[in-house]
């Protein structure tokens, strides 16, 4: 292969195969095994296509899909950090920054910078597109937990108010989907998949 | 949930989770297990982003990514058919047609028709975008087989001329990547990953 640029691009493509081995806390909807971050990213991109009509104005679908496809590749080095894991989230940003430095640098310089900027945009939720992408990234595990009778919530003792807090990203980035989220949470509480924290007495 | 349209879209999103359990013949590049069709589709969409500069004129990147993300969802019902399996390929089209009828019909009518048309465009390789998408769908398993020392080829006794024949889709849909494909095939033959068929005597 004479084309040095193409060689680097192919090496990047081979490298990211490793995302298929990064396991998340969620199970597949049939409960058979943990989901990995590559198939999760595929699912999010499909959601961006199917739910496009609910996106707020100024959302750029191609940009969103690119963000969703690449938003987790830093996990190849940094691993998946469970969203309710307080300790793991303390050094998540640092671990992911180091990962981004290594992984995007596999690409030709200009292209690596372009894809890294997309990842940074997603992480900062600095645009309507990034906020919409983030909302889908929250909605998918919610659907997944509903389908698996609250598997991840029960495993980690996650409560309704924690889920509601986390799902505020949907309210911000995908307001048209917020009633759906509220309904799913109430259905999950009613079904016993998600527990409500005991009320704290104000006395 | 009051919105009947959204209910159908969410049901479709939940249904396609099953693609994560459809196994392909190829292994992950680390050889640890078979690849599934959802993560394969993610990988192809990433390739469409990274290799965009090599796409022929008239290729629409968003259209290509959509095709690649959904091209395998018929396998939820029809299963993955190994490309060198002659018997399996005899009724592949019929099985996939039935699958398309069921799966795309889960969506609201207009949207189901739109996504199905994209799948049909991919299957017919009737446009520059579909030909490019098809080329990427051939290139990815080639890279994969190279990384796994020809695992799938050795398992099924696939030869150099069979691979070359199959890779003609790259020559047609992605001529700028054809020299890369020829080089990989020769490297795989030299490394002993891919066998050359014995020459047939013309006597």
Automatic annotation (TrEMBL), chains A, B:
GO cellular component terms, semicolon-separated: cytoplasm
Annotated HD domain ranges read: 16-178
Q: What UniProt keywords are attached to this protein's entry?
A: Hydrolase, Metal-binding
Q: Which InterPro entries match?
A: HD_domain, YfbR/HDDC2
User: At the top level of its lineage, which domain of life is listed?
Assistant: Bacteria
Q: Which Gene Ontology molecular-function terms are recorded?
A: 5'-deoxynucleotidase activity; metal ion binding
The family database entries (Gene3D superfamilies) matched by this protein are listed as: Hypothetical protein af1432
Its recorded name reads: HD domain-containing protein
Recorded source organism is: Aerosakkonema funiforme FACHB-1375
């Amino acid at each position: 292969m004479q084309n040095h640029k193409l060689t680097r691009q192919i090496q990047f493509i081979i490298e990211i195969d490793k995302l298929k081995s990064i396991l998340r806390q969620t199970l597949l909807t049939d409960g058979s095994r943990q989901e990995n971050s590559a198939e999760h990213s595929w699912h999010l991109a499909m959601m961006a296509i199917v739910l496009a009509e609910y996106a707020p104005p100024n959302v750029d679908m191609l940009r969103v899909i690119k963000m969703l496809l690449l938003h987790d590749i830093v996990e190849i080095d940094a691993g998946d950090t469970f969203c309710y894991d307080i300790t793991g989230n303390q050094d998540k940003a640092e671990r992911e920054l180091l990962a981004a430095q290594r992984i995007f640098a596999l690409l030709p310089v200009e292209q690596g910078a372009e894809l890294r900027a997309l990842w940074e945009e997603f992480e900062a939720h600095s645009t309507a597109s990034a906020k919409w992408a983030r909302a889908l990234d929250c909605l998918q595990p919610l659907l997944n937990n509903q389908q698996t009778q609250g598997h991840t919530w029960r495993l980690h003792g996650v409560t309704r108010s924690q889920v509601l807090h986390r799902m505020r990203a949907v309210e911000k980035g995908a307001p048209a989907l917020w009633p759906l989220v509220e309904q799913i949470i109430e259905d999950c509480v009613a079904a016993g998949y998600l527990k409500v924290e005991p009320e704290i007495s104000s006395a």
